[in-house]
Amino acid sequence: MSKDNQVLEELTSKEYEHGWTTNIEADSAPKGLNEGIIRFISAKKNEPQWLLDWRLDAYKKWTTMKEPKWPNVTYPEINYQDVIYYSAPKQAAKAKSLDEIDPELRKTFEKLGISLTEQQRLTGVAVDAVIDSVSVATTFKEKLGELGIIFCSFSEAVQEHPELIKKYMGSVVPVNDNYFAALNSAVFTDGSFCYIPKGVRCPMELSTYFRINAANTGQFERTLIVADEGSYVSYLEGCTAPMRDENQLHAAVVEIYAMKDAQVKYSTVQNWYPGDKNGKGGIYNFVTKRGLCAGDSSKISWTQVETGSAITWKYPSCILKGDNSMGEFYSVAVTNNYQQADTGTKMIHIGKNTKSRIVSKGISAGHSQNSYRGQVHIMKRAEGARNFSQCDSLLMGDQCGAHTFPYIDVENNTAKIEHEATTSKIGEDQIFYCLQRGIDEESAVALIVNGYAKEVLSQLPMEFAVEAQKLLALTLEGSVG
Amino acid sequence: MLSIKNLHAKIGDKEILKGINLTVKAGEVHAIMGPNGSGKSTLASVLAGREEYEVTGGEVDFDGKNLLELDPENRAREGVFLAFQYPVEIPGVSTINFMKTAVNQIREYRGQQPLDAVSFLSVMKEKVKLVEIDQSLLNRSLNEGFSGGEKKRNEIFQMAMLEPKLAILDETDSGLDIDALRIVANGVNKLRTKNNATIVVTHYQRLLDYIVPDFVHVLYKGKIVKSGGKELALELEAKGYDWIKDEMEVA
Fold first, then answer.
1. For residues B112 and A386, what is the distance between their CA atoms, to the nearest angstrom?
2. ipTM (interface pTM)
3. Which domains does chain B have, with CATH numbers?
């Protein structure tokens, strides 16, 4: 075995860092999915009748739909009756103040590097912490409230701001949009809600941290961000899960609604448990994320660093309805061992002079399969639309695969579309060059990969960028064969 | 400083080095010349520890250490520097970032504290002046889109930053016009001290007009067949390598 392969072996057998579990008592629904479970969830959350009806309608639609088979991934059939759809850590009620949070939960998040104590946070980031099916804490609520910004768990929003939820939920991702969106609409349990009023620039990063803890449990959260005219917000999302032998399902929905001149920047560092080095276990990450640039000159920007999950199926998209609106998608997707990713974006140009930009960097190592799938659709009315797409793939070793599926539909001949694609391998020459300067192999790979992904990483907020760089290095260290 | 004894190496099934003997002392400059395919670049690569080459016999002692037992990165950390014939491009990584990583890993190996950003930049400024490199080049992706001359100048800049005990310049003159050649050679000369040594691997004599060697060795078919002073290089220039070849055939 060559030295490179040895390093590869050693490092890919490295344990997933967030694979521990917290021992907390959970209040769970029985396994399985039926109307009764949906009523159970709705009752647990003390929901109004209209929301229960909405869920039941989604459930009915879901039962008539089929799981999509077009993604370039394979997995054994999911038994949806074998999943627990609701699990909440037992604490009397959501803590009124941050001091009342169950110490076990606080420790859980502290172990993840997320402090739920505002005073201890140096960086200006407000956090909504979601464990399994419920939100356990939201920081900086009062401070944000002074500006009229609403940042709370989805469940609270349903109680306290029903008019906003009623108006915008499902407005970007309709209940029957796709199989997993319909499933989510039926059984979603919590998530974050955020509303930025007219003309307000949100002074801190808002973030949701998702943690799956309980076994056999699916996580189905919804995030809804509404940016009123001329407002701005930068939103971060992070996620981890314990190591478990069975696969766990995560089917989330994220909706962003941007009005005239509003700007929303949504960043994700996805680090769900990817399964072990033989491909056992791991999260199925089947997520629908979509933003609607409803108003003129609005802008939605997605940035994602995808390192985790056994299977990733996600296409953060922009519907560019307002004239002069703009959509961006920056992505680094890393797969190692037996991970599979089918990810990309959709840019739907409806308004005049709409612009979109896609920068996708795939990195495949081990026995993994990494696909980029992206659609650029210029509708009839979209006079003067422009798109630029760049899809690069980096291969490490000779057991992995990189695939690109671009779809371009143009119905207006004033459109300008550019598509660039490259595939490269980390060269022995590059590694040796680094070694000869005294840089060890792990750092060399980290350096080369971070250089490759730089254009995307530079889109992330500072603190996140550093974390993402480390994560990339950790996922790939030594994966040169 | 460096003592090579009966070194044999092959790539695949092909034996390229067939018993090299060479001793280099601190303060010396050695030139290794020879026709194409004689094994010059192989020797440079074997000393730097490139994996494709398999050492099949011989010893290399570097300052009392068995060089052949060290990993390539540790050879670099011990003070062996190779200026590449074809410097490699690394997109998205600036020369500054690359050098900062290298300098601090070498310092760590030597048990020194890492340089902070300010001290690193001040060291860098000094070296930039020394080797006459355009500082804007150092902010760009390493070697990406650099001209041949810029790449070689960047190699010498890196050499200045890392202050090696033994620098091996592999065909550093290839692809350089006369001005670039002079600047690169000036850089190398400024970095010479009585404590370090340089091995210049070259096909042509012209680099040796600028970097004047103490010893010249002729490599032919994997062996050093002739050694002499700097005048040997001139003789080779005048007579060509055929002279050596003929001499070898006769013998």
1. 53
2. 0.96
3. 2-250 (3.40.50.300)
